[in-house]
Amino acid sequence: MGNEAIGLGAIAAGVGVVTGYPGTPSSEILPTVSKRSPGGIHVEWSVNEKVALEVAAGAAMAGARSLVTMKQVGLNVAADPLMSLAYLGVKGGMVVVVADDPGPISSQTEQDTRTFSLFAKLPVFDPATPEEAYEMIIDAFELSERHGTPVLFRPTTRVCHGNAPVMLREEVAERPVPGFVKDPKWVIFPRLSYQNHLRLEALLPRIGEEFSAYRFNTLSGTGRLGLVTQGISAGYLGEALAILAEGAGGGHAAGSIPEHKLLRLGAPHPFPKRLALEFLTGLDRVLVVEELDPFIERELQRLAGEHHLPVTVLGKGSGHVQVAGENSVAAVTGVVADFFGLEPPLTPTCADVPAPDPVLIEPPPRPPVLCAGCSHRSSFLAVKLAMRRRKAVFGGDIGCYTLGNAKPLDMVDTCLCMGAGITIAQGLHVVEPDKVHFAFIGDSTFFHTGIPGVINAVYNQTNIVLVVLDNSTTAMTGLQPHPGTGDTLMGDISPKIDIAGLLRAIGVKHVEACDPLQFEVAKAAVNRAVDAAATGVAAIIFESPCIHLIPSGPSYVIEDEACKCKLCITRLGCPAILLDDGKVVIDNDLCYGCDVCLQLCPFDAIKIVGADAQAEVTA
Q1: Which of 41, 94, 159, 240 is the S-S candidate for 333 at Cβ 3.0 to 4.6 Å?
Q2: Taking a C-beta distance cutoff of 8 angstroms, is the pair 124, 268 a contact?
Q3: Is residue 348 a part of any domain in this protein?
Q4: What are the pLDDT digits (tens) for 53-69?
């Protein structure tokens, strides 16, 4: 996997400290380093991306090579220290892996880390394949250490989660770590920042010149037309050119695509101007195929303008390439065919394929939904039923529980970014104090950025109900540990951070924990918290492990004669309960045995399979 290649490449480069916060599509990098470490590498899941970057920066100041991992929205959290660190610099090589998510497949945004590299004035590497990712991460460490600057490394989802055979280097780099040497340069003051800004501006053109000769920035071909690409789009473009060269189904003969130059940029910033000028010289038109921003397109347009080159540069900015979402082979083939003045090949559809052929038949839609047996479903429903006669707003956050917005729960009214559910609830309460404002947050997200928001609510005396959904893991990104679980990536058992104790310590007067799968108990806890929130912040901690951490419970069956109301479908929305020929049935391949449906059924129609036999055995 591309993420494994990045982790193994970091090991080969002699990395000493690896930090990060789990975020799809980057999450597999740290576990790879932890599992494959030859010894001596410190690996940690930090509480958030800002903390992770600062820990890695400290290690790099002492001369160790350090790696930080996150996804693109995590870079927003880490931006504060990273912007200043670009000015301070580092001693050991430091690489910040930021996995971008075109689509987006599992993110709130489609932001492009290459654009952030311009803002932060940092070099960026942009691998196209797992093989390139392995080699590039080693190059990134070497460049970082050579120039004393942090480096951004930008794989995208299809590179992170794509698979390929990778030839590993036999030797791991042996690197002495000199240790931290006291020096005024490590203390950022305005005068020093000014001087370092001048140094940084002088450094970027030198790195840009290096990138003009970099092995993963390549120029090939001849002609008066030009194609430019980067990252995974290079793979799409390669397939598109092969399809067009065959001429299959199109209005042109095989092999009739025009001569063209091809520029592929694996290290796009600082922009390799010398190589780009060599590419642009003699061209009439250029098409740029990239994800996500028109980053290369803008740089080429700027360069052509500076040098008065009579070339037209097309791409996202000109409307010739889609401005959002992932590229694909089909989309790129159409764009390139249009650029070359060719008819695109016909794309087979389901109507063109005989019915028995299953390959091209579209699968049914599968909307995201909380897992069967997920305790979050019971937590949401307990709050919903307790609030049936009250005006309430339900603030959500980032995690599995964001899926509580789906029908029939419909329990997420707001969702912005990590930790914002708590603070948005405060803003809403200031404007509409007559409503009850809930803030749902997961246990890992609570430690990530939830705590400052709670402190703010206590300090400013804002009456909200905090609901911590504690399922003992970071579930959505792959079941990673966090400070509340008590285990670390180094294999140590550390003291668990007690959420209830922490809330009381920062001034929350009403704190109650309960199991949301005990439904009536959970509803009663909600009512008590709402009453307490009339005079301050009140907190409920719903404690129930993620179903992926515990064995499943018993199987259930619905007695058709007793089934009257279908509340288990219209109110609970569990994917294990469905209608089959008008009858409500339980799919025991999906059911996890949480028994919330049994507690909710007013007609006692849901029974444990073999309950009588189990009772006899117990007796």
Answers
A1: 240
A2: yes
A3: no
A4: 999 999 999 999 999 99
